[in-house]
């Protein structure tokens, strides 16, 4: 089989991304692809399966293998970097729409996450973030006002929140995240262009600076149909 399947996988992916094989269309079957590439069916099967695993193709009984809207593999769960950078690294185009940006008195949950006093205020920043012009994640972020006096002057449709923290000398160096799966309510369904009741990945994240001061609490709702998340675990326990 050699590495022919990787060349075939790359060629098929190029055809998908260029629109030769359009979303929703059925690609040639194994027999036809084997003739096209002059290789064995097992080689074709392996190339196609990689694209299935990566979310570009889907095998359906009685129909064949169709081109689907690929999921976006997110390293968000294990790497600290901006949304824009992560999306761009995948060859996609990010954009952001700010829905709400205001100061308000912190609610109890936010106070607990950011270790605030009852009277303290926070910036509340609500952003709808897009990938290739499709809504992908709805993020609500809370930041203590006392730590960033001039945050309200920043245009977060153009500027990165984490880059703003960096400019202020308060890089996020660690994050605690919790993942749930919820069902989209009417508002989220409308904003994310999904059906009411569709599953969403629901992350609660608290970001800390070098002194372990909590400087950000975010709630992110990712579309379940367009995202997958990568977790890397290591075993530091050795058994005899």
Features:
10 strands, alpha+beta, DNA-binding, Arc Repressor Mutant, subunit A, single chain, WH_DNA-bd_sf, 32% strand, GntR family transcriptional regulator, 240 residues, Chorismate lyase, 6-stranded antiparallel sheet, transcription, elongated, two-stranded antiparallel sheet, transcription regulation, 2 domains
Describe this structure in words.
With 240 residues, the protein is of the alpha+beta class. It is built from seven helices and ten strands. A six-stranded antiparallel beta sheet has the order 4-5-6-9-8-7. It has a two-stranded antiparallel sheet with strand order 1-2. A two-stranded parallel sheet has the order 3-10. It is 27% helix and 32% strand. It has helices spanning 4-18, 30-37, 41-53, 83-89, 108-114, 161-167, 186-192; strands at 57-60, 64-67, 72-74, 94-105, 121-131, 134-144, 174-183, 199-208, 214-223, 227-229. The longest helix is centred in the first third of the chain and has 15 residues, at 4-18.
């Amino acid at each position: 089989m050699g590495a022919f399947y990787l060349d075939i996988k790359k060629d098929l992916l190029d055809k998908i991304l260029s629109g030769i094989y359009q979303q929703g269309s059925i690609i040639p079957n194994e027999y036809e692809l084997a003739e096209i590439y002059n290789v064995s069916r097992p080689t074709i099967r392996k190339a196609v399966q990689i694209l299935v695993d990566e979310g570009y193709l889907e095998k359906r009984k009685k129909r064949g293998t169709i081109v689907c809207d690929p999921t976006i593999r997110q390293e968000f769960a294990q790497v600290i970097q901006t949304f824009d950078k992560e999306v761009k690294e995948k060859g996609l185009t990010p954009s952001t729409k700010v829905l709400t940006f205001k100061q308000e008195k912190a609610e109890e949950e936010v106070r607990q996450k950011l270790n605030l006093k009852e009277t303290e205020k926070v910036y509340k920043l609500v952003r709808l973030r897009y990938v290739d012009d499709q809504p992908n994640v709805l993020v609500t972020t809370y930041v203590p006002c006392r730590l960033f006096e001039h945050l309200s002057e920043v245009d977060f449709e153009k500027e990165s929140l984490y880059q703003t923290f960096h400019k202020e000398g308060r890089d996020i160096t660690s994050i605690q995240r919790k993942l749930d799966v919820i069902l989209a309510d009417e508002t989220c369904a409308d904003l994310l262009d999904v059906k009411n009741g569709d599953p969403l990945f629901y992350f609660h994240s608290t970001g800390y600076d070098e002194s372990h001061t909590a400087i950000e609490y975010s709630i992110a709702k990712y579309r379940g149909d367009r995202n997958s998340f990568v977790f890397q675990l290591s075993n530091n326990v050795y058994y005899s």
